[in-house]
């Protein structure tokens, strides 16, 4: 299998337009592809359809109403020149639209791959955070509660009080034995 050029690795342009040797693709930019996409986008607007409609109506009116020597297309022959102009426009429009769709498909493919990788990272991050939350819950569960600590402190205070009382009773008993 032949090794691909650096320009063939790009996915943002159709394969036929990736070589840098073409006059419209010098310096790595894809001017021709962007140019055709701009035209295809323009053809998809209501303004283009409205302009084409006005152009066709003006053509037909001019070649119907204008004086004979000023006419350049014959209504008797079915407006052959108008048909030729519209056919030429359509023959260029179809490949430009297909080129724009192919380029958009390539961009969508790259975007889908990036979205998939981002989703995988998000899933890994979410799983990590879930494990951390569970570990924190277990750690908090093993920690002594405020009530437990209070009960332990009360117990220790009671023991200290008992010891003090025994010490006082012991000292009083020793003093009484000495006094006797």
Please sum up the structure shown:
The chain is mainly α.
Ordered list of secondary-structure elements with their pairings:
Layout: H1 31-43, H2 46-65, H3 80-142, H4 146-179
Helix pairs in contact: 1-3
Describe the structure.
- With 180 residues, the chain is mostly helical.
- The chain folds into two domains: 7-143, no CATH class; 146-180.
- The protein is built from four helices and no strands.
- Helix 1 (31-43) crosses helix 3.
- This is DUF1003 domain-containing protein.
- Residues 102-129 form a coiled coil.
- Keywords: Coiled coil, Membrane, Transmembrane, Transmembrane helix.
Percent strand = under 5%
Q: What does the largest sheet look like? A: none
What's the N-to-C terminus distance? Answer: 115 Å
Helix/strand/pairing category: mainly alpha
**Mean pLDDT rating:** 82
Please report the total strand number as a whole number.
0
Low-confidence stretches: none
The total count of helices amounts to 4
Residues in helices, as a percent range: over 70%
Shape call? rod-shaped
Radius of gyration: 44 Å
What is the quaternary state of this protein?
single chain
Number of domains: 2
* Secondary-structure element pattern, one letter each: HHHH
């Amino acid at each position: 299998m032949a090794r691909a050029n650096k320009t063939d690795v790009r996915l943002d342009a159709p394969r036929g337009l990736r070589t840098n040797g073409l006059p419209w693709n010098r310096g790595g930019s894809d001017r021709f592809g962007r140019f055709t996409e701009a035209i295809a986008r323009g053809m998809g607007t209501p303004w283009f359809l409205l302009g084409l409609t006005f152009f066709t109506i003006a053509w037909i009116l001019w070649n119907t109403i204008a004086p004979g020597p000023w006419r350049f297309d014959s209504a008797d022959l079915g407006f052959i020149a108008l048909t030729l102009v519209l056919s030429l426009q359509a023959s260029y429009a179809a490949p430009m639209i297909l080129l724009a769709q192919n380029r958009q498909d390539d961009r969508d493919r790259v975007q889908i791959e990036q979205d998939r990788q981002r989703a995988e990272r998000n899933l890994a991050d979410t799983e990590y955070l879930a494990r951390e939350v569970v570990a924190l819950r277990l750690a908090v569960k093993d920690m002594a509660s405020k009530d437990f600590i209070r009960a332990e402190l009360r117990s220790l205070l009671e023991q200290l009080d008992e010891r003090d009382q025994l010490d006082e009773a012991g000292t009083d008993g020793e003093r009484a034995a000495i006094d006797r």
